[in-house]
Amino acid sequence: MVSRSLRAEAAPADIAAAPLPQPYAYRRHEAVEPDWRRFPGWRDITEREWRDPQWQRSHCVKGVRELRAVAGPGLDEAFYDDVEADQRHHATMSILLPPHVLNTIAPHTAVETAAWYEDPVRRYMLPVASDRHPLWPSHPLASRDSLHEAEMWAVEGLTHRYPTKVLAELVSTCPQYCGHCTRMDLVGTSTPQITKYRFVLRPADRLDRMIDYLRATPTVRDVVVSGGDVANVPWPRLASFVGRLLEIDSIRDIRLASKGLVGLPQHWLAPQVLDGVAKLSADARARGVSLALHTHANAAQQVTPLVAEASRALLDAGLRDIRNQGVLLDGVNGTTEGLLDLCFALLDSAGIMPYYFYLCDMIPGAEHWRLPLARAQELQRSLMGYLPGFATPRLVCDVPYVGKRWVDQADGYDRERGISSWTKNYRTTVDHDDPTALDRVHHYYDPVHTLPQQGRAWWTSAQALIGAAS
Ligand code: SF4
Predict the structure, then answer these.
(1) Closest Cα to atom 3, ligand 1: which residue?
(2) Ligand 1 pocket check: which of 259, 261, 298, 324 to mutate, most ligand atoms within 8 Å of Cβ?
(3) Is domain 150-407 given the CATH code 3.20.20.70 in the classification?
(4) What's the 174 CA to ligand 1 centre distance in angstroms?
(5) pLDDT tens, 278-311?
(6) For 20-50, what is each residue's pLDDT tens digit?
């Protein structure tokens, strides 16, 4: 402890030179765009090609054949086999990696197997079989559409799950596919394990019905325009849809959802897109509507200078805000340092607001990524006080049939079996006529492999019963 007299003598400069030791040491994130020329397959790619969204889209890596052509002998054959085994036996999402995403894996080293195995972006964007948990790859109660969104469709692709908010899924594709995608039942192309559902209606008809529903439902004031990823909606169709939303006086908030800002920033830097965003933003502003973009970065190294450039350009074009909704993933960002590094990178470099981190949803094959609720509660506490209050992210659990809840809002928590209990304070379209809806208790489940021995034994017995009943 500093004595009273010493403190009195210390000049301000001395105090500044000797910062207090803290559990997390803040440092300004100085990003450098990783050099794509370290990949043998991109040695001759010019900056002009790299910044071209069409070049990026047409050179996506979709499997081991393309990966080998780009990464070459730096990655062992065993690594390629591991990727292939994952696609064959486990994957719920197919591989789709724009060069920009691949370039953020082990960003400042030569392409090399050990670095790739350890890398946080690789761990969720390019899954390998050896990452999956050997005993509990899936939770016994994991399911496709674990949030039951399709049950709450007011019209096809329009999820009405909260009193004043809806989610409009315009498209079922993205510029990149993430291994842990919560909409794995619908988004992307089928894998050997998962045959994807498909929208039935024609896109134009679906969008018309969404608009009709919203016109007829003035209690909805907030529309998340999502997918998939709106970066895959042809711009004229997206602009027309948002333009029609703006004409509905009851809608006050519109949020475009695009991980593409992080995975394919070239898309959002395209002049046609920026011009279009500027027009929509001006229209929104004139009508008093908040038009924002939500993106999805999970590791600080994803906030490259190009991502920051695209983000700043969108803000300059007039978007009200850009916010990040990440997912808590073990081995990717499940530490205080990982989360704070990411939040400061977003805020300092790109002007992106850290907003949410979700516990990973209970989809099949996700157990090696999922963190228990107790860990999320610890992480939430450890984040407090470092970031400005307005930029301190909330860690949330998206509870099936309930919705997002802050991780400290559980009504009960059996730590031995990893079962948390949650209630809600509103009705959804599936329980609107149920008099017990607001008293009913819903559950979220921790990954079994993180439980104490008694809890694991309980789930081993329960798994047999669940299997017999299903
Ligand atoms: S961008 Fe979003 S919707 Fe698309 S695969 Fe990733 S998590 Fe799923």
Answers:
(1) 228
(2) 259
(3) yes
(4) 6
(5) 999 999 999 999 999 999 999 999 999 999 999 9
(6) 899 999 988 888 999 999 999 999 999 999 9
Q: Is 98 in the pocket of ligand 1 (CB under 6 A)?
A: no
Q: Please work out whether the CB of residue 228 comes within 6 Å of at least one atom of ligand 1.
A: yes
Token pair 């964007």: residue: 125
| Residue nearest ligand 1's atom 1 by CA | 259
Q: Tell me, letter by letter, the H, E, C secondary structure of 111-161.
A: CCHHHHHHCHHHHHHCCCHHHCCCCCCCCCCCCCCCCCCHHHEEECCEECC
CA distance 278 to 261: 16
186, 174 Cβ separation under 8 angstroms = no
Q: What is the pLDDT of residue 25?
A: 94
Calculate the CA 79 to chain-centre distance.
Answer: 25
Ligand 1 within 6 A of CB of 229: yes
Q: Dump pLDDT digits (tens) for 157-174.
A: 999 999 999 999 999 999
263 CA: nearest ligand 1 atom: 1
- Sorted by where each begins, the domain ranges of the chain are 36-131, 150-407
Burial class (CB in 10 A: 0-12, 13-18, 19+), 247: exposed
Under 8 Å between Cβ of 370 and 359 = yes
Backbone angles phi, psi at 33, to 5 degrees: -65, 125
| Ligand 1 geometric centre to CA of 124 (Å) | 11
